[in-house]
TrEMBL record:
Homotrimer. Belongs to the KHG/KDPG aldolase family. Its EC number is 4.1.2.21. InterPro entries: Aldlse_KDPG_KHG (IPR000887), Aldolase_TIM (IPR013785). One of its GO terms (molecular function) is 2-dehydro-3-deoxy-6-phosphogalactonate aldolase activity. This is 2-dehydro-3-deoxy-6-phosphogalactonate aldolase. It is an enzyme of class 4 (lyase). PANTHER family: 2-DEHYDRO-3-DEOXY-6-PHOSPHOGALACTONATE ALDOLASE-RELATED, 2-KETO-3-DEOXY-6-PHOSPHOGLUCONATE ALDOLASE.
Amino acid sequence: MTRNLIAILRGVRPEEAVEIATTIAEAGITRIEVPLNSPDPLDSIARMAAALAGRAEIGAGTVLTEAEVDAVADAGGQFIVSPNCVPAVIRRTKARGLGSYPGVFTASECFAALDAGADALKLFPAEVLEPRGLKALRAVMPSGTLMLAVGGAGASNFGEWMAASADGFGLGSALYKAGRGASQVRRAAEDIVAAYDAASKGQ
């Protein structure tokens, strides 16, 4: 089963990256992001992409510039996540053949991102927008637009967000925090997957 979940490993270190990523993939989350404000993120991305080829998609988050897109692509990353909407970054991402998930909050940002070629929209911070905000945006979005709730969406409210038409989620501190060991991450990932699957069946 392919789940529309992105594991956000902010603060992960290269020496632990493969073990943590493998644990998460085995639990059923197969899209994994390393934010670029983590220690040596490109090293972590390269290691994870090599070790999990064919088993998980590895990408980068907090990507702000075209040069960073190039660096991630060269390291073997497969998708780009940003906290903001910068059309030039989106276009560069697509030119390099990577998935593009820019951060948006307003209708103007949503349309600018889609016009630049974004594959999905990262609603951030979702906890401020709330499910009712997603419903309002969905009313004007083109049919088929993929919208991912990030920041405040998680196991306790997947159902509420799905009812408001969320297509997927990004999970950060609920899943991984710097210093958290693989066994803790596995338990958190399994709980998140179970909640996601249960919420999906209820829709």
